[in-house]
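Summary for the steering committee. The consortium agreed at its last meeting that each partner would contribute one worked example illustrating the joint modelling workflow. Our contribution is presented below. We chose a case with several input lines so that the handling of multiple components could be demonstrated. No manual editing was applied between input and output; the record is shown as generated.
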Amino acid sequence: MTIPPPIAMLAELTHRCPLSCPYCSNPVQLQGKAAELDTATWADVFRQAADLGVLQLHISGGEPASRPDLVDLTAAAHDAGLYTNLITSGIGLTPKRLDALESVGLDHIQLSMQGTTAGLADWVGGYKGGFTRKMAIAQEIKARGIPLTLNAVMHRHNLDDLDATIDLAVELGARRLEVACVQFHGWAVRNRDMLLPTFEQTEATKRTVAAATKRLRGILAFDFVPPDYYSDYPKACMGGWGSAGLNVTPDGTVLPCHAAESIPHLTFQSVRDVPLADIWFKGDAFNAYRGTDWLPEPCQSCERRDIDFGGCRCQAMMLAGDASVTDPVCTRSPDHGLVLKVLEDAGVARKDGEFTYRAYAGKQG
Amino acid sequence: MILELAPTDRPFLPRGVRVQPDRVRGGMVLLAPEKAIRLDAIGEAILARVTGQASFDEIVDDLAQTYNAPRDQIGTDVQRFLVGLRARMYLGVNP
Ligand code: SF4
Ligand code: SF4
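What follows is the complete predicted structure of the assembly.
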């Protein structure tokens, strides 16, 4: 098998974030500030990524604006020839910083939405006053004409807010709205009974997105990530393991996907020790589930084998306790009963209490 | 909104969308927000003419002439290609 070079890289500059969303995709073991790569090392990683074939750089976190050197890092990425996408909550950005980011060549901003009212958004994000500040910076982004995508992570407590989210995206001049139903990894697992949408909500969401896609054609493009627990087939996670993208954590650890550390038998290399190209092409973790040869039945003889590659490894790990089996979300998986059980339990346990917010273990980093 | 371009519409790549060489894989690539699309020779030829100045008709004429191909066929291909980009908001249009 010839291994294609990666197209996209997610750079988690920091795990620090003023918000504490209960579905945060950062690992449960958050890295502190002291562990983070410095400016020069990140800049070198960006150059290595571009040399390797990466075209798109997602500058993420945590909250990337928590890094004082965000502008320098964006400049380094731009100079390396990468398309720069800033994934942010907006908190920590200022008009002055936006000007600086624009002048060093920032290409696009993806702004996260926790809700369309201060009450809802600040509750979900666990940060009082966050919504007002986010809206202020959204207006600054709009005024500058920086290409904008809104990313709304949807779950049981804000799915009914979807119409308002769509209106807000149009009002803010966003070109694209990502309606991403929460995926259950890391922190989200701890909040599953709070977050898991009902079947009815999921169906209504699909209808809303389909209708809005038609109505807003040429005004707002949609990307929809349905909640996969209700799907028949799993998602092709990352477009295939070690096939299109990679993820660098704040301390330089390189992962095939952001949740890969949840697979205990894998070991990961760091850009501090090994060139990025060697990690991509030769790293054990990247080769562990590359391609389809390793796939078990029923995937091996399934006509969807080269479409979804057996689904998500981390989900197989979490639900079935084995990262090398068919994603239990798949209705053909022998473990599919586990998903049905989760749905049934969530129906019974459905809570309207409080979230378990993301937090540092022990002392704040 | 109707996505099909009128003969006089002048398409352009909006801010955040650009064509650049792919120095590792070769060829040209269209870069847009969170998306990279490899261009084949036809896509490359079309986008090289998407300047914000040339009208849809002028682009089609130019391509038909350059490649000595039937204008109707080229018109259909260009329309399909540009509508696809416009639906994803990768293309702007000046009247
Ligand atoms: S999901 Fe929320 S808490 Fe996690 S990094 Fe994004 S804004 Fe911060
Ligand atoms: S059996 Fe495997 S390959 Fe087939 S749809 Fe399910 S997960 Fe995909």
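The first strand of chain A starts at residue 8 and ends at 12. The longest helix of chain A spans residues 199-215.
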